[in-house]
Amino acid sequence: MVKWVRVGLKYPIGAAAKVPAYGKKTEGFEKLPEGHVSFSAIPRSNFLCYGLLRWLLSVKPSLEGPKKKKKSGGKKKVSKAEQLRLQKEEEEKRLKEEEEARLQAQQEEAARLEKERIEQEQREKLEAKDQERRESELAELHSLEQKFLSAQQWKTDYRALAKWEHYLNCDGSPDPTVLQEINTFMSLWREDQNEDIQLVMEKGEQVLNLIEKLQFLLLDTPPNEITEEETVQYQESILELQNLLHQKYNGATEHLLKTANMYEDSDTGNMQMVIKGKNVTFCIWANLKKKVRFKNHMFCDTQHGFDLPKSLAASSVAVRILHTCYDHVSPLWLQCQSVPKLEVLGSKELTQHSKGNVEEPEEEEKKAREEPSMPAEEEMCSDGRKSAISFKENSNSIADINETEEETEKKSEILDIPAQVQDLLMQEETNEKEEAITDDSIVNLQQFVPVGGVYHIDILQLPPQVKQIKDWSMVELLDVGLEAYPYPPEEAEDATHPPIQITLQLSDNVMYFEDPVITRWDPAGQQWRTDGISNITYETQEKSITFEMDAFYTIALLQDAHLNMPYQAWELRPTGMDEALLIVTTVFATIQIQIKGNQCMLSSVVVEEKDVLSHVTGKWKSPVGLRAALKKAGVNIFPGEYSHKYVSVNKKAPLAEVRAYQQMALVASAFAFAWSKWNLEAGQEQVVFKVKEHLMADSVKDKDWSLYMFNGQKAQKLKIIETSEAFSEELEEDSEFHSTLYHMLKDFASKEAIDKVETASFLFIDVVYQLLLATRVLTYS
């Protein structure tokens, strides 16, 4: 049995903390006031341990470690002499470090200056060497540039030959350029009383062909080969043909509606008909029974439909939705919008500008004065489909341009830019004179363009119906012709009238990258407007659009003309002898254009990894024809006259841009070109692009590209690569300056590549140049 003895000890906590506690009733120590503890309940049998504990307490200081010596009252003072010595040492150390840094900076600056001096000397030597051979290089380039002149002459001869062949054919179709022939053609058709809708549509295709020929002539003929009188004549003929065609469509519609009861539908008792042609579709519905429950209708063949107000459903009316794949409503300047026409810059002109003291030949000066600085067709202004062009405005525009020619020539001398290169500058300057549109409802046709044709949606007065009496067909003849039914009624303009709901199925032959803007044509103001149209619903997957309008209008779906600008990338590479492939990558699509000889072909348009526009791909066309086909399909990669106002442009000097396109075209049979991110960093006066000799038909690997910089008068190969951290104009080692891009590439090219360049077809070179100038890849990328 264990007996307990109560022992009381007092000691500081610090010492007790190291003493183990024993016992069953308590474990550890019990705290007492004043920071002491009591040790209790120790078994008698372990009393010897108690002596040990007392000993441990007696040696407390040793458990806590040696006592710290008390510091004397305050820090030891440093003498004033010692302080001065330390300050002096620190000052000497600082001065020494500053001297070392100064000497190092001097050495680095001296090394930099020496390096710059050596580089400057080398650069001056290279520039002097370039100046010595400049004349010979320009002369050699001039011989290559004769291919541009050969192409121009070939196209002139081709137009003359086509005119002669048309004369020899005697197929009855008129020559649209001969005023007498085209007037005779139109007079004969006006007098023709046959208004069968199928015959009218067939004749309409011939009229559309004549209009297309005139538009092509306006777009493709060089200014020195067409007079101002001829331009005005072609424009007038286009408008008259358009007006005549629409009149014939109205006559055919009236003729069909007179026999509407012969096409009565067994279910509704009304007449409904869809007539499709190559470029036009008629959807006609006649309200023969006047039953309100049949106030809406959907044409099954086209998926166009309408929902009429009850007042119209009870009236003797007809609804016509006439869809034309072309646009004969918008102003003619929009229909015939052209690529900036820039004259070919010969190396002879380059030589003269480089010398600075050689006058232009008299013939070239005379030619420059005679040629307008801007295509006249871009300044056209239309009074509408049923009236002629306001040629006075056209003349005023030309006069305004002529007034700025002197100013441009002065600017040309300062910038050392030939007058023929000023077309791009002239565009931007004259565009600033355009008045701003203040009415939000008026559509700005500089920014938006109609896509997918025009929808003429009309409510018509149903004409008297044909009556069969025995073997006779009798019909009442009216002098008014096709008569529009007034809606809303004129006598109650202030009253509220229910809107008309329209549903249109959009064509698969047109790309809408964003929801289209629905507009109506205002005949009085000669403009497209957005007011009067509401509750628009666009079904992207079904490609259908439903909306309401307060009256019957001519409708067009507009799209931003610059959705695919600026381009994300581009590449031009040869694929064979006189063959090449131009690839333009935009935000929405990748467009591939194949070039062969004097023609080009849309190879593919890929949108979201799907090939689209199969009706356009695979057809060889001229560059002008391909451009028109792509814009008509809603894929516009061709900057217009006003595009720089709506696109973030990487602006470049016309001298550098145009000469780059020319010389790229000259060597495109053996060299591949591509977009470079450093073009944006190179400034306005020079362009940067990737180049690679390319004799095989395969694609170019990233590591094979080299960077070249060109300002129109000097070319150089850059040391940096596409993945470099910063832009630098430093020359590639063992490279030199050259006056032309051709000679710059020649330094690193194989003999086979140079042979291909020298033997390339002038027609192939011209097509490449036209496409580069039309897309302006160096500025709009």
Structural class: alpha+beta
Quaternary organization: single chain
Helix content: 25-40%
User: Unreliable runs, pLDDT <50, ≥5 residues?
Assistant: 1-32, 35-42, 60-64, 342-420
Give the number of helices: 19
Overview of the structural elements:
It is built from 19 helices and 28 strands. By secondary structure, the chain is an alpha+beta fold. The N and C termini lie far apart (103 Å).
Defining key terms:
elongated; 28 strands; alpha+beta; 19 helices; 781 residues; seven-stranded antiparallel β-sheet; ten-stranded antiparallel β-sheet
Please summarize what this structure is.
The chain has 781 residues and is an alpha+beta fold.
Topology overview:
Blueprint (H helix, E strand, L loop, with lengths): L3 E2 L7 H4 L13 E3 L3 E3 L3 E2 L3 H12 L1 H5 L15 H90 L9 H13 L5 H24 L7 H31 L12 E6 L3 E7 L9 E4 L4 E4 L2 H4 L3 E8 L7 H4 L11 H9 L6 H9 L20 H13 L1 H11 L7 H9 L16 E14 L5 E3 L2 E3 L25 E6 L11 E6 L4 E3 L3 E7 L4 E6 L4 E7 L8 E8 L2 E7 L4 E7 L2 E9 L2 E2 L8 E2 L1 H10 L21 H14 L3 E4 L12 E7 L12 E5 L4 E3 L23 H6 L4 H9 L2 H14 L6
Antiparallel strand pairs: 1-4, 2-3, 5-6, 6-9, 7-8, 8-13, 9-10, 10-18, 11-12, 13-17, 14-15, 14-18, 16-17, 19-20, 19-25, 20-21, 21-22, 22-23, 22-24, 25-26, 26-27, 27-28
